Amino acid sequence: MPIPRHGRLALLATAAAGVVVAASVAVIGTADAASTLGASAAQTGRYFGAAIAAGKLGDSTYTGILNREFNAVTPENEMKWDATEPSQGRFTYTNGDRILNQGISMGAKIRGHALLWHQQQPSWAQGLSGSALRNAAINHVTQVATHYKGKIYAWDVVNEAFADGGSGGRRDSNLQRTGNDWIEAAFRAARAADPNAKLCYNDYNTDGVNAKSTGVYNMVRDFKSRGVPIDCVGFQSHLGTSIPGDYQANLQRFADLGVEVQITELDVAQGGNQANIYAAVTRACVAVSRCGGITVWGIRDSDSWRTGENPLLFDSSGNKKAAYTSVLNALNAGGPTNPTTPVTTTPTGNPPSGACAASVSLNSWNGGFVATVRVTAGSAAVNGWTVSLALPSGSAVTSTWNATGSGSTGTISFRNVSYNGQIPAGGYTEFGFQGTGAGPGTASCTAG
Ligand code: G3I
What we know:
Elements: H1 5-15, H2 19-32, H3 37-42, E1 47-52, H4 60-69, E2 72-75, H5 81-84, H6 94-106, E3 109-117, H7 123-126, H8 130-147, E4 154-159, H9 182-193, E5 198-203, H10 211-226, E6 232-235, E7 238-239, H11 247-255, E8 260-268, H12 274-287, E9 291-296, H13 322-332, E10 356-365, E11 368-377, E12 382-383, E13 385-390, E14 396-401, E15 404-406, E16 411-415, E17 422-423, E18 428-436, E19 443-447
Parallel strand pairs: 1-2, 1-9, 2-3, 3-4, 4-5, 5-6, 6-8, 7-8, 8-9
Antiparallel strand pairs: 10-11, 11-18, 12-17, 13-16, 13-19, 14-18, 15-16
Helix pairs in contact: 1-2, 8-9, 12-13
This protein binds ligand G3I.
Residues 76-77, 119-120, 159, 204, 236, 265, 305 line the site of ligand G3I.
């Protein structure tokens, strides 16, 4: 049982009053201090992790440090889109599974990184746009989260979707151009696929209170108010030679929205301040009860993506640096225990559902049409919907997006897909289909 920081201060104050008590404090202090990063973080219910690479697991110096020091792992590249779905619909989990199995063998938490990101997309996805890209992206989220179901502590569902600079808005990307709701669609799909993984939004340059972090803050607040499933926010914390003065306050304002906060990719440029900055980050996480843990982005300086900056806790030979000691001391100083943030799972069975309405708009030409169907919830939220419509004789559906259709001619019903079944009261979602012949006139909607 760790002694909370205020408890230690009380003991030290007592110690100042007498030599005998001071001796007993020294004993308590020694017995209480853990000697590895993971064990020390665990004393307050937190983890201390590292990003690892499958290609390095054969390096005994590397795995020696990994097994000794860390109780969480993140794949540096192995679970990204280009690695897991190199051609559309063909999934490869070989290297992702190597990271997973390494983590399992250590009894570590495994952070999944990252389901959707504008970088490291396979080239086939880079060539898609519109509903083809949206459907491919959501399918990717569903497939990968399903493959790792029950094994991932937290997923970075969406990575780096906000713009740098002062706009506080979204970054332009092919994913963003599929519609502003792509992020919430991804979170809903991830929740449906793996209800027990914590679902995180992850970004960089959001480490202090600034326009970009405030943009993310507003999105998280909106998601929480509308019931979009989000459990955590990752702060990458790729830091230079200083740390924002409001680093802890920024973590705290997100935590106050009811999400867990995590330091997800910490590294700090080597310089006079490196050890101090590492300590400040660690103290900030330990001081925020909803801060779940810290992950450093690599093990040794030679493993870092920041070549030449020596930004990690171990030197290239695997020796502990001053920054290591400062982190360990900050962890051992303790703080409020992290409560495990409950994850609200998607209700099973058939939750109550309000009424819905469907309206069709057609773009027709001689011999064909595209129908866009808007499904609108009434004064109560809708949990699942089915739209029915009749196609004129001689017409047929050739493709459908954002819904699953039954049949292609005559009377057809379209069922919601995993990410658009829940519509808030007064809200709407849209699906579409293309066909030959003439399009339908009206449509009806059944909720539930
Ligand atoms: O594996 C190939 C190798 O076969 C090839 O010979 C070599 C030649 O360039 O490339 C190797 O792949 C590289 C891969 O890292 C593995 O080393 C890629 O080119 C390189 O682009 C890739 O860089 C990764 C980077 O994300 C990509 O954007 C870094 O390792 C990884 O640390 C970095 O991680 C990101 C986080 O995911 C998100 N936040 C920022 C962070 C740092 O950029």
